[in-house]
């Protein structure tokens, strides 16, 4: 009976239910025992006085007391088989995801989700989660974990809870400067037109990596709605969703509706800016051509005026270059030439130092014939004043030696 006291509540309930069943059906059991076939060679002696119900109950109670230890032993053995020691073979059979430490913040989050799913799938006990999770570390993660066990001891390191190991890994493989970058990205996260699925995926990743930005629940909903397009944001805000899942479902429905109406677009979808602009009416085309012609005529008039004004503008004096030859400077004509050569003398004005092609008086005569006529009488040569010929046949101009370079 001591073993009976050690039974669990479920076991005790089952035993008492069985006893009650037997007690309530004792008469049926008696009948079944009476009509059982008995070997003719071992015929029990016939009793003239049948057993009463009380006597039958006492007999059954004695048999149950004798059978209970065996029943309890069998139940305990079944429980021990279910709680068999958990080993690496069971864990590795689920193909846990490897972690090397170079996956970044997003890769770390995905590894957390994968390994926790493996724990649930294989029913890993809490006191062995750290041991089995550390068995899939490789490269940088394995080096880091070996350092933890060296500094604190293997027993202390493995005695941590899974939550403590998660916190250590977040500090090591997702440092503060990376978290700040993720927080800035989370703060600027917006849905790109119709890319609703991409927005939800990134929002859920960043909300797990930056929990401070989405606490409490009201802040989670507000942060999600702030990143939606204006067409969707107003309607979702007006619906006052109580959970972020309600906001996600409503925004997904509205986004799909606006995509069908060509108000939002997914990547690769043609947009109005990509299409050719519609042709303008003929009236506008004629009006535009008239404006172009008028503008072109104005430009031509301005260019003609510039061409007409340009010859009357004074010529810019040319900058005189220094002499680089070897001939000496002549004191008479103030030019460089050899002694056996004649001085440069203008046949127009008779002065030394220049020729007629650069004579300032000749240029004035060509530019202002009235001044020349005032100096020479009419019908005379404008070059020398002789009345027997004109300037184009002037012998002085014909006999002019060519200018030296």
UniProtKB/TrEMBL annotation:
Residues 381-396 form the CCHC-type domain. The keyword DNA damage does not apply. Residues 280-289 have a biased composition (Basic and acidic residues). Residues 261-319 are annotated as: Disordered. Pfam families: Retrotrans_gag. InterPro entries: Retrotrans_gag_dom (IPR005162), Znf_CCHC (IPR001878), Znf_CCHC_sf (IPR036875). Residues 297-315 have a biased composition (Polar residues). One of its GO terms (molecular function) is nucleic acid binding. The chain crosses the membrane at residues 12-36. Keywords: Membrane, Metal-binding, Transmembrane, Transmembrane helix, Zinc, Zinc-finger. This is Transcription factor interactor and regulator CCHC(Zn) family.
